Each structure stands twice: as structure tokens, then as C-alpha cells.
From TrEMBL, chains A, B:
CC annotations in GO: mitochondrion
Broad class of enzyme this protein falls into: oxidoreductase
SUPFAM superfamilies according to UniProt: FAD-binding/transporter-associated domain-like, FAD-linked oxidases, C-terminal domain
Pfam families: FAD-oxidase_C, FAD_binding_4
Name the UniProt record assigns to this protein: D-2-hydroxyglutarate dehydrogenase
Alphabetical keyword list: FAD, Flavoprotein, Oxidoreductase
Oxidoreductase in keyword set: yes
A molecular function GO annotation: (R)-2-hydroxyglutarate dehydrogenase activity
Top-rank taxon: Eukaryota
InterPro entries: FAD-bd_oxidored_4_C (IPR004113), FAD-bd_PCMH (IPR016166), FAD-bd_PCMH-like_sf (IPR036318), FAD-bd_PCMH_sub1 (IPR016167), FAD-bd_PCMH_sub2 (IPR016169), FAD-linked_Oxase-like_C (IPR016164), FAD-oxidored/transferase_4 (IPR051264), Oxid_FAD_bind_N (IPR006094)
Cofactors (names): FAD
Signal peptide: none
Keyword GTP-binding: no
Length: 478, 478
């Protein structure tokens, strides 16, 4: 399926620990972290312990720059040119402007220097120098994150991994890919697919995001339900620490119990412990048969029951279970060219996209058809359609993947990416809708199979007067 | 399938990094660790930095006890009784004797005290006290490990988790099990199967091993090829550190990117960083259809090609791919009651057990039959048989799982558990056979799909004169 639109699928917030329905669980020792409401800028590899906060909004940066960080001078630039050459040191305003701002145009830094190392040694030299000089650094991958994690807050030096985009090796017996961290996910995907394998993760931003960024943010995405977390799929990493030390954990073995498995600390720590420079990933065998169905449900309970039924009856071929409320569909139809509702006959409250991937086209389709028939008989599904060709399947995916793109067109988007137990997942959407009334449009969609909700609040412009109402945190602690 | 025999599947040694065929990979920062030849006793939670070595053999413990550790006295025993009660403090010689020796009878400690805490708080109090008093501690689960990791080296206090065997909760929508660490794997397995799910790991020792021990040793086992590593399946942990601090990382969310994911440090660190007291595990949906085939191959290359073909053609239903050389089969037939070769017509060099698990019995069987037919036509398989009922399937598994049990009956067993790239996996078996000649019997078997070789060297008794020849390490550095 083509997933060409941008979509944030990298940071998941555990909010359930703060919800009253699991009172027995304590708050994590590291403390909770929210994505949007309060941004804790852990991305400086130089001084992870000093976090900086800023509130969301179009240009809001209320905190002061930490004066302990040095300011860039011409000697620094000379040094960087001496190790990277002129091409690796970017001072051109237009090029830096692109790296200073996130894809949403919501977070904007004021860096004056973009560095493009070509090797791990160069990354090491950069970080070692910046550490000594106390220059703040922000590592940057494809800059596709939607919560400001990949752009500077102030004048940090941007270290882009874009120049480290080489595939190092591929073991086509065991499906083990080793590459540099700056490889674009889609390029890796195309490469391994030609070898008969697939990447264990897939997300809307695949055309731009880097595998190093995927790992640093512990990206989930669309294949999580089938292939699980990167903690299970990343076999090895090479990482450069803030002082320039290179940590070689680049094993390519499926099982490796030697010593402490330190690589996991770097999966999801967002560059705060080091910069990922090389990765070894286990890639599953590519299976030839994909089928996609687009269904409607009358209520959220039916969506949940459908998920359970899909797990039982589609079992080993289930590869995606995405849900969207009707607000998402309406938005996609309004703002995306060529998008139509595959089930236009009536208005439904919820829509579900189910994908199966297996080794036998006709058998899998028969199985999916039987499943849908039974689900309709059981009253879980109101209406449904199975894609008859790749074009139809792409159209179904286009709706699900286009929601982010469509929501940007409205104006301001407050985005939350939440992990909540499935049975309670939609409550927060309804609560938010109730709080905001006509002030904003509230969308709920996401990876239901993973208990992962994308909660988007749309408004014509960013407005701090809505801040309190639109705050997940205020609901949590209320 | 019933897996009732003991089998070690917990520690995997990365030896490939030390083999000449991957010269570009550096040794890991933590240094290599072998399981048997040199034992680095990292299991003392009190002082992880001071490792003790001992060579293998029936009673060989050549190194001195670290005098920095205190000796147990009657005040200590009184204190433990004050927190655990009389039943939680075991001084009975017979009961301690069982906890002092491993299942193989090869490693024997001299502990005088076995503690049986019933709660995390009790574990915390024990470790806090031992830390202050500098009493060495060895945490013990089911004591099913085969390399001496679960028994004392000297007079360490044994802290058994056997009393912490309660299931805390099960989320039967998402398949998330939360339990205490002392639960026996088979009990958990039975429990979740009744709910329509399965444990993501299965191993020969399931009837005795604890889930806490599985996690502390990062057990792989028979379902690894299908469900992957515990790093992907363990959602949360509660751990008590050596000073008694309780670390609550017991999240039950499928996705959780809040803070640093510290739990991974405790998966596979063998109790050296802390004692696992509670676990949350993701359990996959139980699928109704299991098929088992037993095949023979004429050479190792055919086994490899068969694995690749199985990944492609059985794809989503492949749940085990185990291989054994004919020495294993001969041994099992000689020493295990009622075991027969399912393919007696001729002598083959290699045997492969393939298991499929899916949602449709007849379809899966048809698929497996077609696969076998094609593999025979392609010359990969010499002969093969598909189990017609559960009894036959159990018999096939009995051969594979009985190898450990049969090997103990010979006398002395030198056991290695190695991760090696599949294409080179069998070289080391042949090299060992060549070195040892008639002095010992060398068996090669294991989880081919995971690149995990069990290399067993059998001799009538432990004899240090074979030590050098039987050393994997000497081959590695040669």
C-alpha cells in the first residue's frame, strides 16, 4: 500500500497511568511526559539533564535560553569545516530555515548552523567538540515529527543525519538489514522488498522519515499489530554519545544475550542519550497476498468486539486494524482531492480499516469475506466492502493516512498521541468534544489493535484561550 | 504440544563476533561471555561488579570466596524470621541441598539459608538487609538452568521466588497477563490458554521454570521464530534493586514511550541488576490448528534451503523450525523409553521438525502437504511424515525435547548454547567432532530459524584432559 502522506506515529504518551480507572498503578519513576501541552526538550545530546519547556502554539516559546550554553562563533564554523568540508557545513539561510521548522510549521527554532556529517567518526568529532565548547545540539532525521522534537528550540547546532544514507549489508537468508541511520524508511522498504522481505514498520511519513529517527522515537506505525515493537525488531545499534564516544552494539544476531543489552536505552529516548548512527533490523519475509476491507460500525463497543473477533478469526493474517470516527472521514472527504467515502449509503459513527497479509491471495480473501459476513450477522458491522484491486485498496488507505494532511488544512491542530486501554480509548474523545463544544472539531482515530489513539483538536487558529479546555493533562489530573 | 522435559534455552552466547568470518565486527563493549567454559557469576545482586570465575566440571571451584562478603550468623537468621516468619526461612539440610544444586547435578553451592519471600516488600527487606550486612545473595527461580546460573557458588543466601506465584490480572481483550515472578511458565500457559491466548514463549523446562527466571535470562525457546524476543513481549516489570529499592515499571500498555525504557536492562541481565518480582506480558491469541511434520535432509545446506522455503511458503503459519543431526536421534532412541524414529526406512544425516499454527486445520494441513511435496521434488527433503493426530505430534516433539534428558543419561555433558549465522551454524559441530574424535560424542541441534545452536559434547565422565579440545573459546581464538 502506498503510504506517502505525513503522519506522526512516533511518540506515544502513556496517559492511562494518570487516569482514574487504573488507580493501582503508580506513576513511572521517570515521571509522565506529554507531547504537546508541555514539551520537555530532551533532544539536546549535550546536556540531557537540563530540560527546557515550552508551551504549544504557533510561535510560543516562553522560557529563556539556558545561558550555560555557549554561542556559536566563527572559530566553531572553521573547525566544523575542517572536519566536514565546506559542503558539510550549511549556513545558507534558506536551507537552515527548512531545518529550523517542523512539518506542521508549528515549532520554529533559530539555529544558525546545519551540519551534515557523512560518517560515524564525523558525528563523533562534532559531538566531542560541541561537548567541550558547550554548544547545544539537536540531532535531526527526516524532520517529520509533529511535536517539535526534531527542531531546535533556540540556537542549537542542527546535526542532520541525511548524509548517512548508505545500506551497509543485507543478509537475505535471515532477513537482516544493516544500514546507516539517515536512510529514508521508504528507500529501505523498497530495497528489502526487492529481496523478498519487508520492513517491520511502516508509517505515513515513510517517504521522508529516517530509520534512525524511527528508532530514536520508537515509532510504532501501521505494522505494529503484526510485527510488534522496535524493541523486538532492532537487533543492533551504533550510537555516538554526547562526548563523542562511539558505542558499537551493532550485532546482527537474532538472539544475543551477551552482556547488558544497552541498545534498548536508545530506542525511544529521542536522542537524549546519544545519536543513532547505524542500525541492524530484522525484516520479516514478504508475503504476496494483501487484502483490505473498509467497514462501518454503529458504536465504539462494536469496534472493540470486531477487533477481538478479528484477532481470533483472521489470526495469523491480520496485519492492520485501524479505526476512525465519522469526523475523520468527513474531514478527509472535505479536504483531500479525490477522496470518497467507500460506504456512502448511510451515515455511520465509526469506520474500521482491516488489512490482511498472507501467502495465498484467494484463500485469504475467502477468509476475510467469511469473517465480514459473520460480523454483519452478529451485528458488529453495519456495512462493509473489500477492495477488489490495488487501486481500491490504496483509496481505502488514502482516507486513513490522509487525516493528518486534511487536518492541517483546517488551520490549527492540537495533536495528542495516546496509549490507553482499548475499552476506555474513546472516552477521552467524547469528553474533549463535550468540553470544547462548538469551539473546535475533535477527531479520534488510530491503531485500535495497539490501544493507540490519535486525538486531534482542530481550530481555525492557535488560541491560548482554549488551552485549558484542550489539555489532556488537565483532564488527567482533574 | 506437551513440553514436559527439562531443556535449557535461556542463555545464548554470541560467539559469531569472535569467529573469523565476521572480522569487521568489533567485540562488544561489555566483553564476550561464554556459558560453560568460564562462568562469570554475575548473579550476586549484592555486588555485581565483583565477578567470580569457576571452571566447569563435577565439583571444580578453583577460585576463592571473596572475603569482603560477610558470613551468615544467627542474628541474620533471626532478622529474616522476623520479616518472613518461620516458614519463609529454610534451614533444613535436605531442602537447602536441592536449592544448592542445579538440575544437571553439575554445579553445587554451599548455601546454608534459603529464603522464601511472599511479597515484593519482603524481597525488598531481604535485599536491603543483605546489602547493609554485605551478605552475598543468589536469586533463584525454578532452578532449571543448565549452566549453574541459578545456584550459589559459595555460601550465598538463596532468595527463591517460589512463594510469589500469584496471577495478578488478565486483560482478555488485549491479552495482557500480569503476574508475580515466581509463577511456573506451564501454569501461566494453562491459565491463558483457558482464556483463548498463549504465552509468547515455550520451552522444555516449562513445568518448573519461573516467568521471572525466563525474563532474567531472556529465554528464547520454541516460539521465538513466531513471536520473537521477550524484549518485544514483556510490557512491564517490577524489580527490586540490590539495596532494596523497588522499581515500578509495571505498565500494561502495548505502546509506552514515556521516559527511558529501563525494564529492558533487566531482561537477560540474570539478576545481576535486580530481582524481577512482577511481570506484565503480552500474550498472542491462541489459534486452533497445529500441524507437525518430521522430515529428513541429506546435508546441512538442504536444511538451510528448507528454512528459507518454509519462511516463504508457510509464511504466517510457521511456528517452529527445529533441526537435529542424526547423532541426536540415535541418542534419543537409545535412552528414551518408547521413542522411535518416525523415518526408520533409511539413515539420514539431518532431521527437521516443522510446526505450523493457524486458524484453519484443513487448510493449514493442505498447505503443509503441498510444501513438503514441493520440497521433496526440489530435493531439499529426503523423506517426511506429517503427524495425523495429537499423539503422533507429541511423539515428534518428544524426540526434539528429549535430547537434553537423553544426553544426561550418558554421563558427562558439556553444553553450549550458541548464536551463529545460520549458514555457518553447523561448521562448529563438525570442527568439534574432528577435534575430539573417539573421545566424545558431539551433538548439534537447535532452533535453526533463530540461528541458535545447542552444541552438546557427551562423555562418560567429566575429565579435565578434554577441556582444551572441547573448548569453544579455544576454537574461537585459534
Amino acid at each position: 500500500m502506498p503510504h506517502t502522506e505525513y503522519e506522526f506515529a512516533s511518540r506515544t504518551v502513556n496517559s492511562c497511568r494518570r487516569f482514574h480507572w487504573i488507580p493501582s498503578l503508580q506513576r513511572p519513576p521517570c515521571g509522565p511526559r506529554t507531547n504537546v501541552e508541555t514539551y520537555e526538550g530532551q533532544h539536546s545530546a549535550n546536556k540531557a539533564s537540563e530540560v527546557q519547556k515550552r508551551t504549544f502554539g504557533s510561535a510560543a516559546t516562553h522560557n529563556q535560553r539556558n545561558p550555560a550554553y555557549s554561542e556559536l562563533n566563527s572559530d566553531d564554523v572553521c573547525y566544523f569545516k575542517s572536519i566536514l568540508g565546506d559542503n558539510g557545513v550549511v549556513q545558507d539561510e534558506d536551507r537552515i530555515a527548512v531545518a529550523n521548522v517542523d512539518w506542521m510549521g508549528k515549532y520554529k527554532g533559530a539555529s544558525q548552523l546545519l551540519l551534515l556529517p557523512k560518517s560515524t567518526k564525523e558525528v563523533s568529532k562534532i559531538l566531542s567538540y560541541c561537548n567541550t565548547r558547550r554548544l547545544a545540539v539537536v540531532p535531526q532525521g527526516g524532520n517529520t515529527g509533529l511535536v517539535g522534537g526534531s527542531v531546535p528550540v533556540y540556537d542549537e547546532v542542527i546535526v542532520s543525519l541525511a548524509g548517512m544514507d548508505k545500506i551497509i549489508s543485507f543478509d537475505n537468508v535471515n532477513g537482516i538489514l544493516t544500514s546507516e541511520a539517515g536512510c529514508v524508511l521508504e528507500n529501505l522498504s523498497t530495497f528489502v522488498e526487492n529481496e523478498g522481505f519487508i520492513m517491520p514498520l511502516d508509517l505515513g511519513a515513510k517517504g521522508s522519515c529516517h530509520i534512525g529517527g524511527n528508532i530514536s522515537t520508537n515509532a510504532g506505525g501501521l505494522r505494529f499489530i503484526r510485527y510488534g515493537s522496535l524493541h523486538g525488531n532492532v537487533l543492533g545499534l551504533e550510537v555516538v554519545l554526547a562526548d563523542g564516544t562511539i558505542l558499537d552494539m551493532l550485532t546482527t544476531l537474532r538472539k544475543d544475550n551477551t552482556g547488558y543489552d544497552l541498545k534498548h536505552l536508545f530506542i525511544g529516548s529521542e536522542g537524549s542519550l546519544g545519536v543513532v548512527t547505524k542500525v541492524a533490523v530484522l525484516t520479516p519475509a514478504k508475503l504476496p497476498a494483501t487484502n483490505v476491507a473498509f467497514l462501518s460500525c454503529n458504536d465504539y463497543t462494536s469496534c472493540q468486539k470486531l477487533l477481538l473477533a478479528a484477532r481470533r478469526n483472521l489470526g495469523e493474517i491480520l496485519s492492520a486494524f485501524e479505526f476512525m470516527d465519522h469526523h475523520c472521514i468527513d474531514l478527509a472527504i472535505r479536504h483531500l482531492e479525490g477522496v470518497q467515502n467507500p460506504l456512502p449509503a448511510s451515515q455511520y459513527k465509526f469506520y474500521v480499516l482491516i488489512e490482511t497479509t498472507g501467502s495465498d491471495e484467494s484463500y485469504d480473501k475467502t477468509k476475510l469475506e467469511a469473517f465480514l459476513l459473520r460480523s454483519m450477522e452478529d451485528g458488529l458491522v453495519s456495512d462493509g466492502v473489500i477492495a477488489q484491486d490495488i487501486s481500491q485498496a490504496s483509496n481505502f488507505w488514502r482516507i486513513r493516512e490522509g487525516i493528518s494532511e486534511a487536518s492541517v488544512k483546517v488551520g490549527a491542530v492540537y495533536k495528542y498521541d495516546l496509549s490507553i486501554p482499548v475499552e476506555k480509548l474513546y472516552d477521552i474523545v467524547e469528553e474533549m468534544r463535550c468540553r470544547l463544544g462548538d469551539n473546535a472539531e475533535v477527531l479520534g482515530y488510530g491503531h485500535l489493535g495497539d490501544g493507540n489513539l490519535h486525538l486531534n483538536i482542530l481550530s481555525s487558529k492557535y488560541d491560548d484561550s482554549h488551552k485549558e479546555e484542550a489539555s489532556v493533562q488537565s483532564m488527567v489530573w482533574a
